[in-house]
Amino acid sequence: MKNPMLEVVSLLLEKLLLISNFMLFRSGATGEDKGRNSFYETSSFHRGDVLEVPRTHLTHYGIYLGDNRVAHMMPDILLALTDDMGRTQKVVSNKRLILGVIVRVASIRVDTVEDFAYGANILVNHLDESLQKKALLNEEVARRAEKLLGFTPYSLLWNNCEHFVTYCRYGTPISPQSDKFCETVKIIIRDQRSVLASAVLGLASIVCTGLVSYTTLPAIFIPFFLWMAG
């Protein structure tokens, strides 16, 4: 049986991670054609390489399949709305991506290197060094990625693009980005100042709105849970 408290905490962490990256996605919306105008020298890429696109607050990953093709996990709201491959195969816009993250639907799809990178610089197999893990043979990596192509559930914490590439590359799905975010949240929760801040905000909301259930209960339980977790 699933622990309801763990499910609530997991949901809150995912929403916090989504909010923390929302401005990044939003800022990228003004330059959605940038990647289409960029050129990448793919001759140095090998089938099975992990391609890494650094962003301001996160990093996107994919597996190079050869012939200018990259397999990567991409959230997309259209997958929940239509089966029309002609529409879903188009480059995923930032709005489609954000809504896909919220409803937790994604696909492992194949795009060109240009559409995958979207104008950003590309690092190759950087995870090998940062994780210090032994990679599988490149052909095995590529075959794993090809077998997973298609619809997949999405989770910022438990099943994202980093989980996909680390499974393909090393045989184990892990996400240092998600782990780092969770550790940051733990530090915040364990800081007793968070309890005080939440109590003050709760008291202020009660003063402003009165003793109603939708303000009183959070004002009591949020500081209590933070105190217990700390």
What descriptors fit this protein?
disordered C terminus, 230 residues, 6-stranded antiparallel beta sheet, alpha+beta, 2 domains
Provide structural commentary:
The chain has 230 residues and is α+β, with helices and mostly antiparallel strands. It contains ten helices and six strands. It has two domains: 42-175, endopeptidase domain like (from Nostoc punctiforme) (endopeptidase fold (from Nostoc punctiforme)); 191-229, no CATH class. A hairpin with a 2-residue loop joins strand 2 and strand 3 (69-75). The two termini are 25 Å apart. Residues 22-35 and 226-230 have low confidence and may be disordered.
A few lines on this structure:
The chain is an alpha+beta fold.
Helix content: 40-55%
Strand content: 5-15%
Can you say what the CATH homologous superfamily of the largest domain is? endopeptidase domain like (from Nostoc punctiforme)
By DSSP (H or I, 4+ residues per run), the number of helices equals 10
Largest sheet: 6 strands, antiparallel
Instruction: Encode the helix/strand succession as letters.
Output: HEEEHHEHEHHEHHHH
Overall domain count: 2
Overall structural class, as computed from helix and strand content, comes to alpha+beta
- Quaternary structure of the protein: single chain
Net shape: globular
Biggest sheet, spatial arrangement of strands = 5-1-2-3-4-6
Q: What distance separates the N and C termini?
A: 25 Å
In CATH, the architecture of the largest domain is Alpha-Beta Complex
Task: Say how many strands there are.
Answer: 6
